[in-house]
Amino acid sequence: PAEERIRNFCIIAHVDHGKSTLADRLLEATGAIATSAKNAQVLDTMELERERGITIKLQAARMTYTAADGHAYILNLIDTPGHVDFGYEVERSLQACEGAILVVDASQGVEAQTIAVVQSARAQGLEIVPVLNKIDLPTAQPDRVAAEVQAILGLDCTRAIHASAKERRGIGEILEAVVARVPPPRAGSRARPLRCLVFDSSYDAHRGVIASVRVVDGALRLGDRIAFLNSGAEYEALELGVLVPHARPVHSLAAGEVGYVCGAIRALADAKVGETLAHAADARAQPPRVAPLPGYREPRPMVFCGLFLHDGDRFELLRDSLAKLALNDASLVYTAESSLALGSGFRVGFLGLLHMEVVQQRLEREYGLELVMTAPSVAYRVTTTRGERILVDSPDKFPEQSAIASVEEPFCAVEIIAPFDCTGALMELCQEARGEFGNMQPAGDGRVLLQYALPLGEVISGFFDSLKSRSRGYASMDYAPSDYRAADIVKLDVLINGERAAPLAMMVHRAAAQATGRRLAARLKELIPRQQFRVPIQAALGAKVIAAEHIAALRKDVTAKCYGGDQSRKKKLLMRQAEGKKRMKEIGRVSVPQSAFMACLSLR
Ligand code: GDP
Ligand code: MG
């Protein structure tokens, strides 16, 4: 099809405002899928995604639509992940489009994520078509919400479409708006050397990597020698196709079109999201005839945790499972780590908390592993007194205080929308989390929009829960990693009977160190059983003890209460003790139950 008959667009929305339902309605209305009575959503493919109502993996669906002007159009609907953790992938998929349908729930109004996605869509220069969804609800106020969209987002809402994805109202109008208002791909680019943007890639056991591409310039034909410009890897295009929404092979894809490419590509690392695919000959020419598309960067893990097993014997299975997951997830990074208390495991890096939870659930569900995860932490940038700059993502790697010149921590830009009467409580919360105030403005319907810069480390440790409880559940929030700022971060050590308990060490802000140390010491006092001798428990910064407790010595013989005669009871008790020992870890002379470590790790 000619460029002027193609429209590439996506749907953007705050979670639960109806993006997936609307996507299904568009596919239905254009005959791409059969009208279903069930609300099974087509674009959310993974079981986990559907269950949680989130969209993790990007996909594209191609529809044919005959518009009111009598012409047949190819509409490519590009699905974007619905969560901040996948911000970079959202950006790449928006880059594959010329327009976006902005879905706003007419009974809820603009939420934090609405602002964030509109900002990214604008940054990519997309035409935004506002749709006020759920007008079937008695609480819907489309006119009020339209005014809000106009006031907060600065979008012209005079032509905003009133719709109900649930009741199939407004669907035809939306399709017409896509044709009339979303610009076609840039004309004339088919004569240039081939360049495709990889906006998604996934791994298939039979076909290798399947790369979803938007052809930006030129044309890609079956059998072409292709190269990825950032990784430098070369392959042959063995299969090309489009998703309608199920895979349909084609012979070529030209500028403006969206489809997928397979080339027996063995490593996901060769065809990462954001890559530029070109003809190998153009890439190899001296000087090269093509340049990579702008904006490529490596996935950057922001949140880290230790991953261990309840049953240490299954370590091999954990290693293999992680390797399999990583095949399909270029953002997942991990290195082996062994811990005295928890055995062999891995230090794993994630894009954010949701990504972490998804990986955890997949490991438990698909591979039957019982995991022990340490509390999540961020990576600090440490400059040593010798001038070295290192990235510290685990307390193990934190240098001695005397060797540290400075520490920087990751910050993020945060947007919060909440009822006006919560403003004070939420500003206090942000202050406690060491936030820097940015801006405050009315957000319509008695609500306020707060903008802060917050340390990511604070955001990932219980901030969401506090936000919800201090706003009676009404606040919505979105965040995006922004920059690194100087911070007074220290390593808090825990000593049991004078011995360092390495797995309990943590990186904290100096101002929070004492309270955290006290909490940890008090908790350990409860969790560690009495020993034959007095056991001091201390929290320390370097050599300086900042909190201390002790466990009094145990004197009684465990079998004393089994009045002499009952040998079988005595035996049973000793056996149970021996079994308990297996789950004990020795810190110096002290036996600490594994459960105590786990309780402390989750306590932070
Ligand atoms: P997403 O998170 O943006 O993908 O939202 P979904 O499409 O999963 O929809 C979230 C919830 O809103 C689901 O329970 C839908 O059935 C419901 N929903 C979607 N559109 C409408 C609508 O037009 N009216 C009503 N009443 N409910 C809707
Ligand atoms: Mg969805």
UniProtKB/TrEMBL annotation:
**PROSITE patterns per the UniProt record, alphabetical:** G_TR_1 (PS00301), G_TR_2 (PS51722)
EC number annotated for this UniProt entry: 3.6.5.n1
Q: Which residues form the Tr-type G domain?
A: 4-186
Q: Which Gene3D superfamilies match?
A: 3.30.70.240, Elongation factor 4, C-terminal domain, Elongation Factor G (Translational Gtpase), domain 3, P-loop containing nucleotide triphosphate hydrolases, Translation factors
Residues binding GTP:
13-20, 79-83, 133-136
Catalytic activity annotation = GTP + H2O = GDP + phosphate + H(+)
A GO term for molecular function? ribosome binding
The protein's UniProt keywords, in alphabetical order, are: GTP-binding, Hydrolase, Membrane, Mitochondrion, Mitochondrion inner membrane, Nucleotide-binding, Protein biosynthesis
Note the topology in the membrane. Peripheral membrane protein
InterPro entries in the record: EF-4 (IPR006297), EFG_III/V (IPR035647), EFG_V-like (IPR000640), EFTu-like_2 (IPR004161), G_TR_CS (IPR031157), LepA_C_sf (IPR038363), LepA_CTD (IPR013842), LepA_IV (IPR035654)
Among the GO biological process terms of this entry, one is: positive regulation of translation
Q: Name one GO cellular component term.
A: mitochondrial matrix
Q: Where in the cell is it found?
A: Mitochondrion inner membrane
Classification via Pfam families: EFG_C, GTP_EFTU, GTP_EFTU_D2, LepA_C
Q: Which CDD domains match?
A: EF4_II, EF4_III, LepA, lepA_C
The family line of this record is: Belongs to the TRAFAC class translation factor GTPase superfamily. Classic translation factor GTPase family. LepA subfamily. Belongs to the GTP-binding elongation factor family. LepA subfamily.
What job does this protein perform?
Promotes mitochondrial protein synthesis. May act as a fidelity factor of the translation reaction, by catalyzing a one-codon backward translocation of tRNAs on improperly translocated ribosomes. Binds to mitochondrial ribosomes in a GTP-dependent manner.
The UniProt entry, under PANTHER family, shows: TRANSLATION FACTOR GUF1 HOMOLOG, CHLOROPLASTIC, TRANSLATION FACTOR GUF1-RELATED
Q: Which NCBIfam families match?
A: lepA (TIGR01393), small_GTP (TIGR00231)
Q: What is this protein called?
A: Translation factor GUF1 homolog, mitochondrial
